[in-house]
Design brief:
This protein is mostly helical and 138 residues long. The protein is 70% helix and 0% strand. The protein has helices at residues 19-70, 75-114, 130-133.
């Protein structure tokens, strides 16, 4: 009498066990969601960069103001410095707002392309063949 041992092969499991498959599925969906949101995130990053650029430019202008005032020799120089400072300020804000609005409109356009109506399953009735149209009753 011989005894046979049968070995049952288990499906392959990663070293981390059955949770690996669940984690992989979850991460794939998050990856797909992040890739779908990538154009909008890039547009928002452009808006943020424009805001930062405007803030840095104005901070530099305000930081250099005391040194410029110290070089003024007369009240006319101070008045001209103030005039130029505020004129540059207005120009910087106008250009900055224009760039920010342009970047914001790009962000809004990205959002408009995302919302597509879902496709519907429509049954179509094919046209009758030309042979059947030409038949006439006898």
């Amino acid at each position: 009498m011989t005894t046979q041992t049968t070995t049952v092969q288990k499906p392959f499991e990663a070293a981390a066990g059955p949770w690996t498959n669940l984690s992989h599925t979850y991460c794939q969906q998050m990856d797909a969601a992040m890739k779908a949101a990538e154009p909008s995130m890039q547009a928002l990053a452009c808006v943020q960069a424009e805001w930062a650029q405007l803030a840095i430019a104005r901070t530099r202008a305000w930081a250099s103001l005391p040194g410029d005032i110290s070089r003024c020799k007369s009240p006319a120089d101070l008045a001209m410095l103030q005039f130029n400072f505020w004129q540059t300020c207005g120009r910087a804000y106008a250009q900055g707002w224009q760039r920010i609005l342009h970047a914001s409109s790009a962000c809004a356009m990205q959002g408009a392309h995302v919302a597509e109506p879902p496709r519907r399953d429509v049954l179509s009735v094919s046209e009758p063949h030309s042979e059947t149209r030409n038949r006439q009753a006898a």
